[in-house]
Amino acid sequence: MSTKPLLFKNARLVDPDTGREDKGGLLVRDGVIQDLGPQLTQAVDADIIDCGGQVLAPGLIDMRAFIGEPGGPYRETLKSAGEAAAAGGVTTVVSMPDTSPVLDDPAVIDFIVRRARDTSIVNILPAAALTKGLKGEEMAEIGRLKEAGAIAFTDGVRSVTNAQVMRRTLTYARDFDALIVHHVEDPDLVGQGVMNEGEFASRLGLSGIPREAETIMLERDMRLVRLTGGRYHAAMISCADSAEIVRSAKAKGLPVTCGVSINHLSLNENDIGDYRTFLKLSPPLRHEDDRQAMIEALNDGTVDVIVSDHNPQDVENKRLPFAEAADGAVGLETLLSAAMRLVHSDRVSLPKLLRALSMKPAEILGLPAGRLKIGAPADLVLFDPDAPYVLDKRQLKSLSKNTPFDEARLEGQVTITMVAGRIVFDRRSM
């Protein structure tokens, strides 16, 4: 339906596609960007929002979020995930197939598409299972699942250890131009490990997970991509050796991209401290040298996207001894604020950061969003990059509160989130 145009004026426009930063305005009409630039200071017959110099940028696109619905609505529903995403400036979320039932049937994919459209205030796009039942044994029906609305194919937190199965899925997906997203972690090498292998794990008396659990699986996948030519995205890498593997594959022209969790850019193994289970993640938090390597990989383009790895867990699964606690942390609402730490410490420029949070995910997924340009969807976030606050987990909109940033001092608060020209979050009215 046609609605009255809306002008954002006096904004700091940041376009991650071109890297340009301009002071000016942006006009939204009928759900798309109609005009923008320094010259745009007024518009006839339009509602006006004075941004007061705050940053106006494309809405964030999160390529990795676990949502409990269907099967685990006590953890997170599509509705609550949408509210959490909107509060964090995220306008599009890719949901993982680790649900009950698993998203390996076209009818279930269709249900998620319809349910998300009816209940979520942001775009939620389902990723379908790569193998049936997430068992890693038999390839899912990629063609039918894509037709039903699957945006990508992944086994979520599980790795496909059978190289022949992975080869077949890459080959089949290539013919449908489908994207394979893989969790690179060899479960046999992980074994009983619960955190990064090294001196700190020994001090805590916890079993370690070697970096090789990630790098061996990643190296195997690069060779299979070379063999098949299928489009491949490593869901998350976490160590320096993995960055070198991806860097080498890209230099050879392979159709490879990769992501990194905001947790692995902001935190290291020392943050686990006295067995803080909210920081028990998969892959585990690494050594500080690996964190620095991830930042450098983001700067040089080896790392394409930053994800929240939003994985809500209830209290019963987290209030346990560290070794027994479930992996995962919520992250949709803190994704932007935590990422702004890299900007405030002068490690990453704001346009480059937003590129990894919006434009590159859109490019990889084939979405028209992620850019400030005429005709693009009006999926936007207005935020104050310098606004300080202390995170109170009780105020999170997610149903689960397992955030690694509880009581952390953060900078950068979302003021307005807009999806398809409709304001879905407005801090000014809170």
TrEMBL record:
Amidohydrolase domain segment(s): 344-425
A molecular function GO annotation: zinc ion binding
PANTHER family per the UniProt record, alphabetical: ALLANTOINASE
Name the UniProt record assigns to this protein: Dihydroorotase
GO cellular component, as recorded: cytoplasm
Pfam families named in the record: Amidohydro_3, DHOase
Location of the Dihydroorotase catalytic domain: 53-240
EC number(s) given by UniProt: 3.5.2.3
Protein's pathway: Pyrimidine metabolism; UMP biosynthesis via de novo pathway; (S)-dihydroorotate from bicarbonate: step 3/3
Binding-site residues for Zn(2+) 2, renumbered to this chain: 183
Active site, per annotation: 309
Its biological purpose: Catalyzes the reversible cyclization of carbamoyl aspartate to dihydroorotate.
Swiss-Prot/TrEMBL GO biological process terms: 'de novo' UMP biosynthetic process; purine nucleobase catabolic process
Catalysed conversion reaction: (S)-dihydroorotate + H2O = N-carbamoyl-L-aspartate + H(+)
Repeat found in the keyword field: no
HAMAP family: PyrC_classI_B
Stored InterPro entries: Amidohydro_3 (IPR013108), DHOase (IPR004722), DHOase/Allantoinase_Hydrolase (IPR050138), DHOase_cat (IPR024403), Metal-dep_hydrolase_composite (IPR011059), Metal_Hydrolase (IPR032466)
Annotated binding of Zn(2+) 1, by residue: 309
UniProt keywords, alphabetically: Hydrolase, Metal-binding, Pyrimidine biosynthesis, Zinc
Cofactor binding comment, as recorded: Binds 2 Zn(2+) ions per subunit.
Source organism, top-level taxon: Bacteria
